[in-house]
Amino acid sequence: MSSEVFSLESQDGNAVGQSWKRTNSESKVMGTFRYTADLPVPKCLYLGVHRANQPHARIDGIETESAMAIPGVVKVITGADLYDALGENLFTGPAFSDQPPVAWQRVRYVGEPVAVVLAEDLATARAAADEIYVEYEFITPVLDVNAALEGTDYVHDELRPSAVFPDLRHLMGKRDTNVNYEYNLIRGDSETAHQEAPVTVSGEFWTPPTSHVAIENFSASAWVEENRLELVSTTQTPSYVRQAIATMLNLRLNQVRVRTLGLGGSFGSKMYDRLEPLVAAIAWTQKLPVRLELTREEAFVLTTRHGVAVSSRMSADANGNIVAATADVRYDTGAYADIGPRIAAKSGMVACGPYRIENAKIKSRCIYTNKPSAGPFRGFGVPQVTWSHESLVDDLARDLGEDPARFRRRNLLREGDVSPVGTVMHSADFIGCLDAVTEAIGWTDPLEKIEGSWKWGRGVAVGIKAVLTPTVSNAVLQLNQDASATLLISTVDMGQGSDTIMAQIVADVLFLGPDRVRVINPDTDVTPYDTITAGSRSTYHTGNAVKKAAETMRDRLIEIAAKQMGVSASDCKLAPGGVISSSSQRLISLEDLILSQFGAAGTTMTAEANFTTEWVPYDRTTGQSTKITEHWFAGAAAAELGVDTRTGRIRIRHLAVAGDVGRAINPALVNQQLLGGAIMGMGHALFDEIVFDQGQIVNGTLLDYQLPSIKDMPEKLTPIIVENPHRTGPFGAKGVGETGLIPIAPAIANAVRDAIGIRITTLPLTPEKVLSALANQGNK
Amino acid sequence: MNPRILRPESLADACALLSQDEDALVYGGGTALQILRKQGILSASSFVDISGIPGLNNLHHTGNELLVGPMVSIRRMETDPVVRESVPIASAAYAKVANPRVRNTATVGGNIAHGDYRLDPPVALLVLGATIKATSTAGTRAIPIDKFFIDFQLTALNRGEIVTSIEIPISNDVVASTFVKFSSLSANDWPSASAAAAIVARDGEAQILRLALGALAPTPVMTAVDITGMREAQATEAAVESAMLIMDPLPDVRGGVEYKRNLGRIAVENAVRNLWRDRQSV
C-alpha cells in the first residue's frame, strides 16, 4: 500500500480517521431538529392534487365546479392551464424533457397529477381534490417491459430527449418505440467463447420495483418575491433544481433560489424533478405562494426503484476462469424517463460483474411502461444487475464443483486489470472485501446443515459500481477571526453524515477542534454549485473541494503569519494553536493573526475551491472507455442463514458486509452506512416489493408495504471497513453510501441455494416463493 | 373533513350522542380508526371519545371471570400479572399485537370492535369462550364471542352500541393453552396465519381441544375436537383435519390461498405440539 503518499496527510490535525459524533445528533434524538418542512415560509395556499385512476388515457374533460364550490378553495389548475402559460417548457426531466408536472392531454400512470386545487388550508385542498371529476378516453396501457418491447402500444408518441445532452440527440423525435435508451457493451467475441466453453450457466432474473420510504416525507413551498422565485423543498439536488426551474420558467439563475435543510432520509427519492416543477410552475404563473405536502400514499406513486428483468449467461473454461458473459437488461422506467437512461447505461456497464472477462456482450435498455416513474434508488440500478451476475457466478462455481468464494477470488479484477468496460482498475479491493466477509462468518468452519425442519447454508456475493463521472463540486470556506469556520457547500446531509465529514476535513487541515466548523445548509443564493448529493459521490468530490479550500486557507494563513513575523513562508507551518516559525519557534494564534491582519475583531477570511472530474465518453457501439469513471466502489457480503422448510421462512444468523472506502474519514459513520445499506438490501432480498395490478399499486400504504423491522434483524450483523487509499481521494477516501446494499440480495440467495439446493431468480425471497420452490423440487 | 371529537363524561351521554347521529363512531385508542379514516375507507361525522367515562378502564377478577373494561389498553392485557395468571393465552395473544407503541394506545374494546379477521386477541377470546357486553340507549346485551364476528370486517355490534365489557371465564378445566402466529413478510407484519388452542377437561377423563384460527378466513373462526384418550399424533391429525374444514383464506400480497392453508396447518401442528409439551409439564 502507498503509505508514503499519505504520510504527509497524517501530520495534519488528527480529525480524519476519528469517529466524531454526528452533527445535530442531540437535536435529532430530542426531536428539536428542524427539517425542511419546518423552515418558516410566507403564508401559503395549500395544494391538493387530484390524481389519475387510469394507467393510460386521454383526458376528455375535467369538471372542477364542485371543488371550486367548497369554501376555502381559491383556484383549480390543470395541465392545460400550465401549458398555456409555459408551452413546451412545461416538460422537464434530467435526461428527457418528457414529464409535465400536471398531466397535459394524456395520463400515463395511475397516480399522475391531473388537476391541482389551491386552498386556504391543507384539509380543504385535499378534500376538494377528491371532488374533481375527470372524463377519460381509455388507451391500451403498457404494463410490463416485455409487453413494451413486443407490443405496438406506446407510452409516448415520440421520444423527447433533453436538448442539452449530445449523446441523446440522435433519439429526438423517434417514434413507435418504448425504448428510450439502449447501452451496448461489446468486448471480444462472447458468442464463440460461450460455444467453446465446457461450462455455461444461464438465468432469467427479476428484481421488482421497490419504494424508498424515507421517513421524512416530501414537501415543497414556492413563492414569488421581487420578480424572483423562492423555493424551499426536500431535495438532495438543489443545484440541479435551480437550473431546471430557471429553464422551465425562462429565468436567470439568480432569479431562482432553492433552499433545503437536512433531510430525514432520501435514498435517491428526493432527486431531480419531484415536487419542485409543480410548485414552481403554479407559484410563478399564478403569482401566489403555494405549499405541497405529500401524504405517505402519494409518496408511493411519486418515484420508485426500477423493476429490472435480466436474461443472462456466463461461461467458464475447465480451469475455472470466466471466459464469457452475456446479459440482456431491461429497466422498467415507468411513464417518464427521469434518470432511467443514465441508470441503464451505468448499470449495464457492470452487468457482468467485477471479473476478468475477455468476452462480454451486454445490452441494457431503459423502457417506458404505464407505471409511476422509476428513478434513482441507492445503488443506481446496480443492485438489480448484481442480482444476476452474482447468482450466475455462484452457479458456475457450483457446476465446476468449486467453492464459490475461491472461484470468485480467482476471477475478480485486481489493481491494474482492465475491466470489461475498458477502464484500468484502481483502489477497488474486491478480494480484500471478499476475504473479510467470508472470514467474518467463518466460511470454512463446519456447518450443521440440517436441524429439524431447518436447513442451513452460507452464501457470498461481491458488488461493483462506478462513481458518477463527470461531475462538479465547489466549496467556500470562511475562517472567522475567533478561529471558528463556516463552510458553504451544496451537499445535502440526509442522514449520511456529510456535514460531520466535511467539518472533519476542514478541521484536519486547519487544526480545528470538533464544533469549530459549521456547515451551512444548501441555499443556492449562498452555497456554490454542486452536481448532486447522490451516488456516494460527496466524500470524494465535495470532500476534495473542501480539502482544497482548506489548504488554500492554510497557505494564506502561513503567508500572512510569515509577513507578520518577518520570516519566509517556507519557514512557517500551521500547527495546533496557530502558525509556528521553525527558526524562531514563535507561534501566532489564528485569532491574533487575523486580528492583526484586519485590525478588527470578528473579521473573516474566505477561500474557495473547485473540484471537477472528467471522463472519456464510452463508444456508442461497444460501450468501451479508457476512463469510464473517476473511481470504483467495491464491496462484498456474506450470509449464514437457515430456511424453515415447513414455513419457507428465512432466518439470517450472521450477515457480514464489507466496503473498500479508500480511507474512513469517520469510521463510525462508515460502519453505519454499511449497516444501513445491508439492512435495506435485506428488505429487498426478503419481502420489499411494490405489487401492481393492471398498473395500480395494490400495497401502497405502510400497512401493506413491508420494511425490515427491528425484529427482522440478523442475529449478528458485522460491518467491515476495507481501506485501500485512492490516489486522488481526500486523505485517500471514497464514498460508501451504496456499497453495503449492492451485494446483499445475491449473498442471501446464494446462502439459500447452499441450504436447500434451489436457485431462486426472482426477488423477493418470500416464504411463499421458497415453499413453492421446495414443492417443485419435491415433484421433480 | 375531519370528524368532530366529542368527549362525553358518562356512558349515558355517550349512548345519547351515538343515538342522535348515525354517522358518529365510538373512539377508543384510535389506532385503527385513524388509519382507516386517513385511507378514506371510513368516514364519520364525529368521534365519540369514551376515554373520559369513569370505570371503562377497569380490570376486575371476580374469581371465576375476568371483567375487562373496553378502555383497558392492549399493553395492560399483555403485562398485568392478574391476566397472565388467570388467562395466560389471552395475555399471550394481546402481547403479539403490533408493537409496544400501538399496544400502549390501542384498547381492548376498539380491538374487538374493529372486527378485522387477522387480529390476534379474538382467537384467544374464542377459545376461552368470552362474552362481549354492548350498551346503547336501548340497554345492555350480551353477545357470545362465537356470535360476534359475522363476516369480513363485520361484527354483531349495531350502530349506536358501545362495547362496555369483555367477560372472560376463568376455568380450572383449562389444562393447557397456546397461541401461535406466523407472518409472511416483515416479522412485525399482520399475521398470515394464527392459532389459539386450549385443552379443556370435561367430566373427568374427557378432553376437548378448542381451536381458533385468525387470518385464515374472512372472520376469526373456531372449532372443537374431542381428543379424549388420543396421543399427540392422533390429536394433531384430528385438529388439522377439523381446522382445514374451517379455513377459507383470502389471497393478498401476503400470500395465496394454498400458501396460507399450508401455514394454517403448520400453526395448528405447532399449537398442538405446544399443548402437549405444556400438558406434560403440568
Proportion of residues in β-strands of chain B: 25-35%
Q: What is the CATH third-level topology name of the largest domain in chain B? A: Uridine Diphospho-n-acetylenolpyruvylglucosamine Reductase, domain 3
Order of adjacent strands in the largest pleated sheet of chain A: 3-5-1-12-9-10-11
The major sheet of chain B is characterized as: 5 strands, antiparallel
Q: What structural category arises from helix and sheet content of chain B?
A: alpha+beta
Number of strands of chain B: 14
CATH class designation of the largest domain in chain A:
Alpha Beta
Stretches of chain B where pLDDT is under 50 for at least 5 consecutive residues are none
Rg of Cα set of chain A: 27 Å
Uncertain runs of chain A with pLDDT below 50, 5 residues or more? 1-11
Beta fraction of chain A: 25-35%
Please estimate the helix content of chain A.
Answer: 25-40%
Total helical segments of chain A = 20
The secondary-structure class of chain A comes to: alpha+beta
Count of distinct structural domains of chain A: 3
The residue-averaged pLDDT of chain B reads 95
Measured by residues with Cβ under 8 Å of the partner chain's Cβ, the largest interface is: A-B, 28 and 22 residues
Principal-axes geometry of chain B comes out as: globular
DSSP summary: helix tally of chain B: 10
